[in-house]
């Protein structure tokens, strides 16, 4: 049994019977434990609930906060709340897509970068806000974002 399946099994085993209303809490627990929902975990949950994995996947994709890929070594969060949007978060998102070639929720093929879009992070007067592995960056402009990505790449190439 793969590690991801063990994690799912342990969480599922805490439920006497997996009912439909248990799906979201179970998926949330799995994501908390593993950082994302693997295909194997979804299959396990579906089996326990007695429904198809397509249905479980459908439920999970309905909510923005579920991820289906492991996070990158560097995980970025861009606030796209109203205030950050007005201050240019869309430009950051466009730049990120150009720089990394991935969509929100995806991870680069080398496993280095992933990113997600967030609702208001509570720092509206300093937006747009970017978080890189938990570190906050305020009033971020696209050029600053490119510099950050370049410096991470350089840092990884350093011997
Ligand atoms: S809208 Fe981005 S911090 Fe509030």
Class by SSE composition: alpha+beta
Strands of the largest sheet, in order across it?
2-1-3-4
By CATH reckoning, the class of the largest domain would read: Alpha Beta
Helix content: 40-55%
β content, as a range?
A: 5-15%
What's the number of domains? 2
Helix-strand topology string: HHHHEHHEEEH
Largest sheet: 4 strands, mixed
Poorly predicted regions are none
Shape descriptor: elongated
The Cα radius of gyration reads 18 Å
Q: Could you please describe the fold and organization of this structure?
A:
By secondary structure, the protein is an alpha+beta fold. The protein folds into 2 domains: 3-62, Arc Repressor Mutant, subunit A (Orthogonal Bundle), CATH 1.10.10; 74-157, 3-Layer(aba) Sandwich (Glutaredoxin). It is built from 7 helices and 4 strands, in the order ααααβααβββα. A 4-stranded mixed β-sheet has the order 2-1-3-4, covered by helices on one side. Helix 1 runs parallel beside helix 3 (39-49). The model has no long low-confidence stretch (mean pLDDT 93). FE2/S2 (inorganic) cluster (FES) binds at residues 79, 81-84, 120-124, 127, 129.
Question: Keyphrases for this structure?
Answer:
4 strands, alpha+beta, Arc Repressor Mutant, subunit A, binds FE2/S2 (inorganic) cluster, elongated, 2 domains, 159 residues, four-stranded mixed β-sheet
Question: What is the topological layout?
Answer:
Blueprint (H helix, E strand, L loop, with lengths): L2 H11 L9 H12 L4 H11 L3 H10 L11 E6 L2 H5 L2 H12 L12 E6 L11 E3 L2 E3 L4 H16 L2
Parallel strand pairs: 1-2
Antiparallel strand pairs: 1-3, 3-4
Helix pairs in contact: 1-2, 1-3, 2-3, 3-4, 6-7
The structure holds FE2/S2 (inorganic) cluster (FES).
């Amino acid at each position: 049994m793969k590690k991801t399946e063990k994690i799912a099994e342990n969480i599922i085993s805490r439920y006497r019977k997996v009912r439909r209303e248990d799906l979201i809490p179970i998926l949330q627990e799995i994501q908390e434990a593993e950082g994302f929902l693997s295909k194997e975990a979804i299959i396990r949950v579906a089996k326990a609930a007695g429904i198809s994995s397509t249905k479980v996947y459908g439920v999970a994709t309905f909510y923005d906060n579920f991820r289906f890929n492991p996070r990158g070594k560097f995980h970025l969060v861009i606030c796209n709340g109203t205030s950050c949007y007005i201050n240019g978060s869309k430009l950051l998102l466009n730049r990120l897509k150009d720089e990394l070639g991935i969509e929100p929720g995806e991870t680069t093929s080398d496993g280095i970068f992933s990113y997600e879009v967030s609702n208001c992070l509570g720092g509206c007067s300093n937006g747009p806000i970017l978080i890189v592995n938990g570190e906050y960056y305020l009033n971020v402009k696209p050029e600053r974002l490119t510099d950050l990505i370049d410096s991470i790449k350089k840092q990884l190439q350093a011997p």
